[in-house]
User: Which sequence fits this backbone?
RNA sequence: GCGGACGUGGCGAAACUGGUAGACGCAAGGGACUUAAAAUCCCUCGGCCGCGAGGCUGUACGGGUUCGAGCCCCGUCGUCCGCACCA
């Protein structure tokens, strides 16, 4: 009987409608089942989903569906990270309101996501630009402010001259704005800050508990927090000329004190500022340093420049003085803004010393090698044993680390300095001079200062009418919005016109999903029961900022009673990118990118050649790169879903490449996935009538038993693979099972199978459908129906494997002679050592290899391998 | 410079805890069916030698440990990622 080809278009629509009608994926907070929270990083509503989204949500949906089938109460929500600059840019370019642009994009993308058939609870959907969401965020702000977790101060800020906004340190990459790429300038502004640095120790220490995170991400966070143990040592000025009489230096290597030959302070160090007022040359030097600042070119040149102040400080342990220099390489933002220079054991200090002719003194030598430092600083690992020159803190022959510990203790003992732990992590500036963000709920009064908006007056809503495109802050330009009475004294006052960094929005959305209808940021008990997110899935690009901010927010929300836990994400998975070949045409002497949709690939004698589909011109096949508009190597998910169906697209995304690696999108690969779908459809379709008549049970002997063994083994293995997110392996096992089932199924169709084999095939076919259901949910429902089942696979419990069927009675053991495989031994699984040995020695090829002799050794690894050593 | 990950066929990749290297897929080649094409099915597919059975060799490179190494140890080379005037 011929079976028509599977038509995903109709089937997928039909099942999506049914799931929606039956609210199959809506989650009940009251369910007694154990909870499981799966979350993919929510998208920015740019207008269309791209293949990266398809991969992200396909991965998460497998987990969600699998856990649901395993009996968990699964929370799998979706929302929109909807504030941000692209909406303002679009507004300026297309003369459309940011709100309208954003919500239209959300509508379009929601429709696309729905066409993927994801098992999402859409009833919990929200966008961060919804008034209700940012109202709750403002409530959080007020609570954080009251708890002292937010403060306001003047600060030098990173100013992006293109986007005309302030950037957090984390948003400055190589001296440029993370979004605009413009060289960042320094400006002085009054800004709101989160006290994230107060949590530095806990954020660092707690990384050790996150064993469900990739080591790589933990390392990146650890580096970012930048904990370092050191000491702060005061160096008294020999002849103070102003108010400052001591320079405090931070050092992680106080054991090298004997090698100190100068002090270097930052141009912005208080002492430098004091001197600058009286010394025009220094003022000029400092101005030059500030001008170059942290821009990329300055970092590249990295030329050490210094200015001798003429001042001297007293060495704390020796009878000598050290000159005080201002150095362009000393950062005010790290440590104390002052360091002692030890040229012998620091390459940067050595370069500086050589340039300005300062002494180079070894504080230690390598064991048995007293060559003094010349052009290369001596910087052995802290674990290496070295010989110290000066024995001031009891330093002799010991490791660097030992010496550091001793020195710190010694300084503390003598009251000459304090051991101190420093972090690179700075407080998080959250003020942005933008319109499309959550307004900061504060009112500035000339008499009362910065007054929080009373909770009852929330939300502070964005005005609908706004003029964008003028430099500066749009809310500040607004004719009326900012003018309000002071909540404290009633006098005329002004609203804060800055809005919050959009990273704030994404720092707690995962908590909001647990009760998005609640008239408070969270329903604390509910949120604490759902959290942490059991499996969070997203791109590695968020390894530092978003995840660190969310970890901070969870702590801050705990402190303010909104949650009761520390770590928001128990399991984290960072997926790889979707990449694609690039194509180029030479036109009028210029090279132009060509979209994959316009390319035909031909293969001739192993050579791949590309042609333009319209003009026929030959094209260059370029490198494989992340899909991007500029290189035109994007494939539109809509086209794929339209052509092959969502299931095929999802299945391809899960096949072949491990999910944490980049996946190369290829037409051939998608077609392969599609062929597999059609093959299953044919096999099940042809056999469906016979299978319906059969009973579903495991076979007891012969081929039926083999079929059952194969299917039960696959059930076990696929479950384990999904638990480990090794979807590519799970897919391979499904292929294997289908390959195994093909012949028995066609025998069933041909009437050549007995009742036992038919029963085993029926059960195996059912297993197969259930196993791929999390990956290809619509197709699975169709097949499930075809097999004569009434309910939906989506609500059917995961199959249990029979332990007896995953173990073979007979096993095949490879037999090696001197470590090289020479044959196999088929033997009872439970055969004991001596039985195996006997069987091995009686094998023909073993006997002929032995030539009548006794083996020197006979190694039997139970159930694995035999090695005969001659 | 510091930190991390990785290196397996033509390609994407498997290989449990040191135990048959290359499962599974893609591409390719050959064949069947067909008036033809599509679709489908069958066979081959790391390299070298051999008619064949089979043998040798092979997981970036050089050593080592082991009955046995893709996996462990030492060294070298290469690729990718993160951080970086961090004291």
Assistant:
């Amino acid at each position: 009987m011929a079976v028509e080809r599977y038509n995903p278009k109709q089937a997928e629509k039909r099942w999506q409608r049914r799931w929606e009608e039956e609210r199959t994926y809506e989650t009940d907070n009251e369910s007694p089942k154990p909870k499981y929270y799966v979350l993919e990083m929510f998208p920015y509503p740019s207008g269309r989903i791209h293949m990266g989204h398809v991969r992200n949500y396909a991965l998460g949906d497998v987990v969600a569906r699998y856990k649901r089938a395993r009996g968990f109460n699964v929370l799998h929500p979706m929302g929109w990270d909807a504030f941000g600059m692209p909406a303002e840019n679009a507004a300026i370019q297309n003369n459309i309101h940011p709100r309208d642009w954003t919500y239209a994009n959300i509508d379009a993308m929601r429709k696309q996501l729905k066409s993927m058939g994801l098992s999402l609870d859409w009833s919990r959907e929200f966008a961060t630009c919804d008034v209700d969401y940012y109202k709750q965020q403002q409530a959080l702000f007020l609570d954080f402010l009251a708890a002292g977790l937010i403060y306001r101060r003047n600060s030098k800020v990173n100013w992006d001259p293109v986007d005309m906004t302030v950037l957090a340190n984390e948003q400055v990459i190589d001296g440029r704005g993370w979004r605009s790429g413009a060289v960042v300038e320094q400006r002085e502004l009054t800004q709101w800050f989160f006290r994230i640095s107060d949590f530095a120790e806990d954020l660092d220490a707690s990384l050790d508990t996150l064993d469900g995170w990739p080591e790589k991400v933990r390392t990146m966070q650890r580096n970012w927090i930048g904990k370092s143990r050191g000491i702060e040592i005061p160096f008294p000025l020999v002849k103070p000329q102003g108010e400052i009489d001591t320079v405090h230096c931070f050092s992680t290597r106080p054991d090298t004190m004997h090698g100190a030959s100068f002090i270097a302070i930052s141009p912005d160090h208080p002492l430098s500022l004091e001197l600058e007022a009286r010394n025009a040359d220094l003022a000029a030097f400092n101005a030059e340093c500030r001008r170059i600042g942290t821009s990329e070119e300055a970092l590249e040149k990295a030329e050490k420049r210094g200015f001798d102040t003429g001042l001297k400080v007293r060495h704390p342990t020796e009878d000598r003085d050290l000159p005080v220099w201002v150095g362009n390489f000393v950062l005010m933002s790290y440590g104390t803004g002052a360091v002692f220079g030890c040229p012998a054991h620091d390459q940067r200090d050595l370069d500086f010393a050589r340039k300005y002719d300062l002494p180079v003194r070894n504080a230690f030598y390598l064991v048995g090698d007293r060559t003094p430092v010349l052009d290369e600083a001596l910087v052995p690992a802290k674990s290496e044993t070295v010989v110290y020159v000066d024995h001031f803190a009891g330093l002799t022959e010991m490791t660097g680390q030992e010496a550091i510990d001793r020195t710190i203790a010694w300084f503390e003992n003598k009251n000459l300095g304090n051991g101190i732990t420093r972090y690179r992590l700075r407080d998080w500036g959250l003020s942005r001079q933008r319109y499309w963000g959550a307004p900061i709920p504060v009112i500035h009064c000339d008499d009362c200062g910065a007054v929080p908006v009373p909770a009852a007056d929330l939300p502070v809503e964005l005005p609908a009418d706004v003029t964008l495109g003028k430099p500066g802050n749009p809310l500040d330009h607004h004719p009326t919005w900012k003018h309000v009475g002071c909540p404290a004294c009633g006098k005329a006052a002004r609203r804060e016109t800055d809005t919050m960094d959009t990273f704030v929005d994404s720092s707690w959305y995962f908590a909001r999903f647990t009760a998005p209808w609640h008239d408070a940021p969270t329903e604390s008990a509910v949120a604490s029961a759902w959290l942490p997110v059991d499996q969070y899935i997203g791109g590695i690009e968020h390894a530092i900022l978003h995840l660190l901010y969310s970890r901070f927010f969870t702590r801050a929300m705990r402190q303010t009673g909104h949650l009761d836990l520390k770590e928001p994400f128990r399991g984290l998975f960072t997926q790889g990118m979707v990449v694609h070949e690039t194509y180029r045409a030479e036109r009028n002497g210029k090279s132009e990118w060509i979209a994959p949709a316009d390319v035909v690939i031909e293969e001739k004698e192993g050579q791949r050649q590309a042609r333009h589909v319209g003009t026929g011109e030959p094209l260059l096949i370029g490198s494989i790169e992340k899909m991007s508009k500029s290189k035109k190597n994007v494939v539109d998910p809509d086209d794929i879903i339209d052509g092959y169906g969502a299931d095929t697209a999802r299945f391809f995304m899960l096949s072949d490449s491990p999910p944490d690696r980049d996946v190369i999108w290829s037409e051939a690969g998608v077609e392969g996935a599609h062929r597999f779908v059609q093959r299953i459809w044919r096999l099940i379709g042809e056999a469906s009538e016979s299978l319906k008549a059969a009973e579903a049970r495991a076979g007891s002997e012969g081929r039926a038993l083999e079929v059952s063994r194969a299917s039960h083994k696959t059930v076990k293995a696929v479950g384990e693979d999904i638990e480990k997110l090794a979807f590519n392996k799970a897919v391979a096992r499904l292929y294997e099972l289908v390959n195994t089932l093909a012949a028995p199924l066609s025998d069933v169709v041909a009437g050549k199978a007995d009742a036992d084999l038919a029963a085993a095939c029926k059960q195996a076919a059912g297993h197969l459908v259930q196993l791929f259901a999390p990956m290809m949910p619509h197709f699975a429902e169709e097949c499930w129906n075809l097999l004569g089942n009434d309910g939906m696979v989506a609500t059917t419990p995961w199959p249990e494997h029979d332990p007896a069927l995953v173990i073979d009675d007979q096993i095949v053991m490879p037999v090696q002679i001197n470590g090289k495989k020479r044959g196999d031994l088929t033997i009872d699984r439970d055969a004991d050592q001596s039985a195996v040995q006997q069987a091995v020695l009686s094998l023909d090829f073993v006997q002929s290899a032995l030539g009548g002799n006794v083996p020197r050794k006979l190694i039997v690894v139970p159930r694995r391998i035999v090695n005969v050593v001659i």
